[in-house]
Every structure is written in C-alpha cells, then in structure tokens.
Design brief:
- This protein is α/β, with parallel strands linked by helices and about 500 residues long.
- It has 17 helices and 9 strands.
- The chain has a 9-stranded mixed sheet, with helices on both faces.
- A hairpin with a 3-residue loop joins strand 1 and strand 2.
- The longest helix is centred in the middle third of the chain and has 19 residues.
Length: about 500
C-alpha cells in the first residue's frame, strides 16, 4: 500500500497546538489582511513624552510608534535592532518587534515571552494581524488591583520570537541557521537590559511568563539566565509548557490515552476501537473526511490517513476543548456510523487556514514553518500513541506494523540536548520557577517531574486544558484552590510579601 507521511501530518497538525494562549473561538482566523505593512495602519498618538524620550535614548530602538491598544491601553510599538548572531556581531542585525505597555519605572513588569509571532485580533475589521488589539497576558489582569478597569498596575513587554512574523534577517530568512532558544534568550536579555537602564529603572520585580511554546520560551530563558549570570528575571511562570526531550515524544501521546480526560477514557477507547472493528463506522468516517476535503482520497492510503487524522483531532479537542461539552458528544454503542464519523472529525476546519498563514512574513510571503525547523534544534514535538487500535480487526498486518513502527520511531527519535540539560538544571537551580499544567491537556505528558528543589514548583489544574485561563480553571472542583496557590507564590516574589 502507498505510504502517506505520518510524521508530516503530526508536525502539521500539532504545530497549531502550541501557537497561542487564545482559544480558536477567541481568535477566529477566516480572513486576513493582504497588507504586509498592516502594523503601521494603526492609528498612532503622541504617547507619554517621558516614555518616548526614554525609548528613543536606547540606541537599538527604531520605528517607535505610540498607539492605543483595546486591551492594554496606551502602548508603544518599536523594532529593536537585534544581533543576528549574538556570538558574532559581524553577522549584522535584524529588526525584532516589541510591544510595551508602561505604567511606571518602579512597577513590577511582566515579560510575555512569545514562541511565535506577535498578533492580535481586530474584531471590527475581522483581521487577526493587528498589534493594536494584541491581548493582555492573563497575569496582567490577575495581578492588577483594578483588574484593568482603571488601567493596569504592571508594565508589560511582549517580544516576537526571532524568525517569526516580521522579526527575521532577510538574508537568512529561509536557512534558519541562527534560529535557536539560546539566540532568542539573548534577544530577550538585550531588550530587558536596555529597558532596565533607560525606562524601567526602579525596584519593581520582573515576571516572565508564556503559554505552551511561549511558556517553553520562558523556561528556556530561565536556563540561560542562570547559565550566563544575567539575573534578568525574578520569577518565571511557564503555563502548559511541555519540556520535550525527544523530537517525537511518545510520552505526550501515551498521557492522552491514559490520563487526559480520565473520566471519559473508557468511552473514548470504545469509540476508537469501533473505527478499526466496525466496517460501517470505518467507511462512514472515510467518506466524511473525503467530503470535508472536497476531493476523493487515494484509496490505498485513505483509511490510514483517516485514522491518523481522527487521533490528531482527539488530541486537539483534549487540548483545547471544554470537557463538559465535548464529552457529551462521545458516541455510544448503538449510535449510527455517521455519529461516530462526526465525532472523529471534530475540530477539523482550522488547519488549512493555519497553514496558509503561519509560514508567512505577512500573508504574502510563504516560507518554511520555523516551528518545524526548531523541533530538532531545541524544541522537540509530540508523537501519537496508537495503542487503542493496534489489534483492530479491519487493519491488515502491514497496517498494524505501520502504526507500531510510527510509535517505535518516536521512541528512537532525536534527543533534544537543551531540554535534557534544562530538566537536570531544575534539580539545583537558584531561579524561581512555577510550572502550571492542565490535567486534561495531553501536553502534560511532557510536564517536568515532581520537583525536589524548593525553588521550583509544579501545579496541575484539575480538568485544566492547554491555556492559562484562570476563569476556566475555577470552573472545576479544586481549580480555584490551585489558582489561589499560584497567585500566593507569585505575589510573594513579585511584591516581596507586601500584599
């Protein structure tokens, strides 16, 4: 039989899972601007003269533009002339996008570490690529006394990840030879250092946080912060950040089948076994996927492709889905084949749009996805576990071998040295780190081990999914207790126990 590229499917589909702290419903992506200068379409303003003067005094700050953000209030957009290679200044510089909201030189500061490009969603014009609507990190709302009603009490710095969005050296835009977590950490260090010298000069503490790959960026920044003795940040809080030590980590896929949404696992396993045991369910699912794609699938690979897609869709729903809602949709024994097919194809519509835009410097310039490049460098990725279906009656021996081999390939995949060093460093680090994971989130299969170092804490939110939404955390029994503990830990460091 013809072989489709299963690992390419995994890379394509899982790449969308680490993109942002927003859910898809919060950030619709059905239309994009064709204007690659769209960030300069924002209506500017004068800003605070003292802030403007301080930023202009920083040699590497260019293209400064004060503007009003619908979530953050008064902000300052600028490009930072960043070293392409922090080990070799002769390689030149590139412009890295930064958005700053500032309330005072002595205020605490949140550094939101992106793992991708900076983006916001302009609901009025249905345009996702807007900085004037970039989101405020959840911590900014949670830690501000006025909760945003009268402005925030903390500064906020958001930095685009190198080689993403508009932040890339044009001459190296496609070779990615200087794309790495270490280089990005150096980027962050340079920006933080200059802001501390010129503007945020007081005694306020710094918190670095991010969600998913953004959170991985924070954890990796903490590692280099200690390695090089920068002392940039006082507390790091990565949310749902898997520290993956292989380029295809089976631990994530196995967690999905054994611990994610554990109350629903027996029903889910029965449903997925129907896909490989019941001919009517299998055919209905293949037909449903073919109809959704709008084309006839190659008959030699359609079934395998459909099974893999159904597993990936389950992964996506477990990551982002509302547990109470989607578990009600799990088919039962006597349901029609079409009901099973519908369930297997849930959450199948966003990927085409995602692939059209994630590769672009602006939507007009397609290029290779930096996420895929970084998997083998220092990021890692997940591998699906097909244990539920390996003995399926409808699978031929070659089919079974195919899925077994996929899992074995994951076990033998490349070791990500940086992540191994990062985990080892957590045993002795003097940095303050608080890792937060969701119980139902498959990516929690890549969670750090239970820490023995008092400087490192780990929380798992009951029924939590792949986000940092404190309001959703509180929906589930025990969730508010975890939120309260996180906030107590953070405030003790950020405000020196003055709260």
């Amino acid at each position: 039989m013809k072989r489709f590229n299963l690992w390419m499917l995994v890379a394509i589909l899982s790449g969308g899972l680490l993109t942002t702290s927003c859910s898809e419903s919060d950030n619709p992506v059905n239309q994009f601007s064709n204007n690659i200068d769209m960030f300069w379409d924002m209506e500017g303003n004068a800003g605070d003269p003292e802030v403007v003067a301080a930023l202009k005094s920083i040699e590497n700050v260019v293209d400064l533009k004060p503007f009003m953000n619908v979530n953050l209030g008064q902000c300052y957009y600028f490009n930072y002339n960043q070293q392409v290679d922090h080990n070799d200044p002769s390689k030149g510089t590139f412009k890295q996008q930064v958005v700053l909201s500032f309330v005072g030189k002595d205020a605490p500061t949140i550094l939101h570490t992106e793992g991708y490009n900076l983006t916001g969603y302009d609901r009025a014009n249905n345009n996702t690529n807007r900085l004037d609507s970039i989101d405020a990190p959840h911590f900014l709302w949670a830690l501000s006394k006025d909760n945003g009603k009268k402005g925030f009490d903390l500064n906020c710095v958001q930095v685009e990840y190198r080689y993403h969005g508009f932040s890339l050296p044009e001459w190296d835009a496609d070779s990615f030879q200087y794309l790495s977590a270490e280089q990005q950490s150096e980027d962050l260090h340079a920006i933080v250092t200059d802001l501390k010298k010129a503007l945020i000069t007081g005694s306020g503490k710094w918190l670095s946080t991010g969600v998913s790959k953004n959170g991985m960026t924070s954890a990796q920044y903490a590692y280099f912060d200690e390695k090089y003795g920068w002392n940039d940040i006082d507390v790091y809080v990565p949310f749902v950040a898997p520290i993956l030590t292989q380029s295809a980590s089976l631990s994530v896929g196995t967690y999905m089948l054994t611990k994610s949404s554990k109350d629903a696992l027996p029903l889910l396993e029965k449903a997925y076994k129907k896909l490989v045991d019941d001919p009517d369910v299998a055919q209905a699912t293949v037909d449903a996927y073919a109809k959704k794609e709008g084309a006839e699938l190659d008959k030699d690979s359609a079934y395998l492709f459909t099974i893999a897609r159904a597993y990936m869709n389950l992964f996506k729903v477990m990551s982002y889905g509302d547990f109470n809602t989607w578990t009600k949709l799990i088919p039962r024994e006597n349901d029609k084949p079409e009901t099973y097919a519908y369930f297997f194809m849930l959450d199948d519509d966003s990927e085409a749009i995602y692939r059209k835009t994630v590769n672009a410097r602006g939507p007009l310039r397609l290029r290779k996805d930096p996420f895929d490049v970084q998997i083998d460098i220092d990021q890692g990725n997940m591998c699906l576990d097909y244990s539920w279906i390996l003995n399926g009656k409808l699978l031929s021996e070659s089919d079974k071998k195919y899925f077994k081999d996929a899992m074995e390939d994951g076990k033998k995949s490349k070791t990500i040295d940086l992540q191994v060093k990062l985990l080892k460093n957590l045993e002795t680090t003097t940095k303050k780190l608080i890792f937060v994971y969701g119980e139902d989130d498959p990516w929690t299969g890549g969670a750090i081990p239970d820490p023995t170092n008092p400087n490192v804490k780990k929380y798992i939110v009951p029924h939590g999914s792949h986000n940092d939404d404190f309001k959703k955390y509180a929906w589930y029994p025990g969730g508010q207790d975890v939120v309260d503990k996180i906030m107590t830990d953070v405030k003790a460091i950020l405000f020196d126990n003055e709260e």
